[in-house]
Amino acid sequence: MSRAAIFNALGTAIAGSTSDAVEIITRQASSISSPTKASVPARSERLDILNAALAIGAAIHVDDFDDTHLDTVIHPSSVVLPAVLTLGETLRCSGDEALSAFALGAEVALRIGLAMTPSHYDVGWHITGTCGVMGAAVAAAMLLDLDAEGVQRSLGIAASQTVGTRAAFGTMTKALHPGQAAQNGVLSAMLAKRGFTAPSDVLDADGSFLAVLSEQHDSRMVIEDLGRTWHLNENTFKPYPCGIVCHPAIDAAIGLHEDLADNGSHPKSLAEVQKVIIRCHPLVMELTGMQQPEDGMQARFSTIHGVVTGLMDGTVGLPQYEDERVVEPSTRKLREHSILEINSNFTRDEADVEVMFRDGTSRRRHVAHARGSLADPLTIQDIYAKVDSLVSPVLPGRTEWIFEAIEGLSGATGLDTLLAATRPPADVGAHS
Amino acid sequence: MNGQIQDLTRSLIEFALRGEVPVSIQEHGAALLADANRRCAKGADASSVEIVVTVLKELGRQPDDGHAVNPVGRSDALTVNDAALVNGIALRSTFNGSGAVDIAFVPVAAAILSYEQEPFTREAVDAFCVGAEANQRILELTGETQQRRGWDAPSLVGTLGATLSIARLLALSAEETENATGIALTQGSGLLLAIHSMTGLLQAGRAAQNAVTACLMARDGFTGPTDSLDNRRGLVSTTAPEVDLSSLVDHLGTSWAMANETSAEA
Predict the structure, then answer these.
(1) Given a cut of 60, is residue B203 above it in pLDDT?
(2) Structural element, H or E, at residue B32
C-alpha cells in the first residue's frame, strides 16, 4: 500500500507542480539561498527543507486528486510524503527507512484521526492538516532516528501546530493545509532532536490534543491492535479530481453519457434536458453542495458540476476543472437545471442520477459503490493509468521510471533514483 | 450563531486598513510596543530561542542578503517571518504563562518587531494599535471559552490581529487582507496544555509568523477564505461555537478596548 500511495501522490504532485498555489509558494521561498536544499517534483528550483515540504504537500493536494482514507477523510500521503521526501533527500536516508517512515507516519495520522471521527471533522476541522501534522512529525522523527522520548516530544510540539479549518475549502489555502502540516511536522521533530520541551502526555492528559480538538473521542482507537492492524491498508485512490463524496454521482453520470449516446436510433441530446436529479447521501449537500461554482477550486466542491461534465463529456478529469470550463455557458446552463436530493438511506459511496427530458422520457443510473471506494477499489493498473495521465503532460516518458524507482526502494541505499525520475529533464543530471 | 453574522470580517478589515488612531491611543500603543521591544530583547537569549534559531539554520533557512532581518536582540540573519517566530518566542517567554486577554498583543508586537524596532514610525504604531485592538476585542468575547476548552487563546486567535497589523503596515488592499486573514486564521493553533513548556512559547511565535507569511502570500495572489470570522467552519466556530461574535465591531474606532491594556506598566 505504501508504494501505491507514494506512486499516486507523486503523480498528483507532478500535475500540481505548475498550479498557481505552488508557483506562489515557490516564489515566496526564492529569497532563501542556502546549501541545505530539497527537491520539489517537476520543478527546477531547490528549496530549503521547510519550504520544500510546504510546496510538495500543496502540489500533491491542490487538484483534490490524492489518496483518501475513507473512514477519516484524511489524505495521508499529502502530509507524510513531503516530510519523508525532504528529510530523506537531505539526510540521505535509505529506501527502506523512507518506506518505514512513510508507513508509520501515515498510520499514526490515521489512528489519531479515527479516535476523533466523526465529531472532529463535523465541527469544521480539515482533518488532513490537524491529524496529519502528527503523522508528519512521527515520520520525520523516524528519519532523524529519535529515541522514544524524542518521538514523544515531537508529537507534543506538533500537537500545538495543527493546521486547517474547512472554511478554506474552495481556495488555495486548502492545499496549503497539508503542506503546512508537513512543514510543521518536520520542524517539530527537528526541535525535539535539539531538546525543545513539550507536554509528554499530549494524547492522554486532561486538555489533551484529542479532548481539545474533538468533543467526542475514543483514545483507545490510537493504539488498538497496534502493529497488527494497519489502517493505511484501507487507503483509497480517487478516479476523479474533486471531493470524494462527489464520486458515486459522477460514476452514474458517466454511465448515463454512454446510455444516451447508445439510445438506439434516437440518441438523446443534453439540449433536451428538463431536469437532472442527483439523489445522494446527506454529506454530499454538506460538503459539495455548490450549485454554480465560479472557478476550478470551487468546482471541486460541486457535485452538480462533476455530474454535469460527466454527462456532457463521458469522462471527468483535470480538464473538466479548468477555470474556463467551469464558467463555460452550456455547462453553467446544465448546472442550472440540476438539483441535489438527499436520501438518508444512501451510503456515502452510493448515488442515483436521473436525467429527465422535455418529451417526458427519462434515463436513470444507480451506483451502489463508487469507483475507487473500498468496495470497488482502483487496481494498480488503474492507478498506473491515472498517474501516467498526470505525469505525461509535465514529464513525458517518466511514469515507468517513477514506478520502477518506487518498486526498487526496498534495498536502495538512497532516494536518488526516485528523485531523479521526478526532476525536469534539464535537471536530471545536475543533482543525481 | 456565528453563521448568522455577516460581514464581521469585512468590517474589521476596513477598520484595520483605514481606521484613524487617536493620539491618546497612539501614545498608549507606542508605550506597549516599546515595552514589547524591551521584553523581546530580554527574552532573546532564552534557551528556547537558541534552539529555534539553531534548527532554522540546520533547515537551511538562511535568507539572501537583501531579505535578511535580525530578530530583536540577536544578530542572526533571518527571513522576516522567521524573525517574527523568534520574536514571538522571546516575547512570550517574559510573561510566564499569563492569562488570555492581557497578552493579546504579543503576536501583534512580535510581527511588527520583525519589520521595525525602536524607534518606531507612526505607521508601525498605528498598525500595532489596530491589530492589538482586534485581538483585545475578539479575546474578550472568545478567550474565556477557548481557554476553558483547552486552547491557548492568545496564540490561537492572536494571529488575527497580527495579520491585520502587517496588512496595514504593508498597505495591502482589502481583498488581499481578506485572503491574508483567511490564510492565517485557518492555521490558528495552540494548546493550553503546552504553555508551561517551550512549546507554549512556540505557539505565540507561530501566531506571529503565520500572520507575516499569510500577508506576503496574499500580496502575491494566494487565496484564502474571505469570510474567516463569519464562516461557520472557521476558527471561531470550531473553537468557541457557543460564542456570539456580533458585538465584535460595535463602536469600532470610537471605543478602544486596548486602552485598558496595562502590561507596559506591569
Answers:
(1) yes
(2) helix B23-43
Which residues of chain A make contact with B231, given a CB cutoff of 8 A? 165, 167
Distant-in-sequence contacts of B71-77, Cβ < 8 A, 24+ apart: B71/B40, B71/B44, B71/B113, B71/B114, B72/B37, B72/B40, B72/B41, B72/B44, B72/B113, B72/B117, B73/B40, B73/B41, B73/B42, B73/B43, B73/B44, B73/B45, B74/B44, B74/B49
Subunit contact A191:B202, Cβ cutoff 8 A: yes
**Per the structure block, which three cell numbers stand in for A99?**
518506506
Q: So what's the pLDDT on residue A255?
A: 93
Cis peptide before A178 (omega within 30 of 0): no
| B233 contact residues in A (CB cutoff 8 A) | 124, 165-167, 169
Return the percentage of chain A with pLDDT > 70, whole number: 97
**Is the pLDDT confidence value at B2 over 50?**
no
Q: Which of A27, A143, A131 is nearest to A78 (CA)?
A: A131
The bridge status of strand A273-280 relative to strand A338-342 is parallel
Q: Which one of A45, A49, A186, A191 makes the best mutation probe of the B interface by having the most chain B beta carbons within 10 Å?
A: A191
User: Which pTM was predicted?
Assistant: 0.93
Find the CB nearest A207 among B150, B183, B224: B150
In this structure, what C-alpha cell is assigned to residue A202?
499530549
d(CA A154, CA A188): 5
Q: What is the ipTM of this complex?
A: 0.94
Minimal C-alpha gap between B22 and chain A (Å): 34
| Cα–Cα distance, B33 to B42 (Å, whole number) | 14
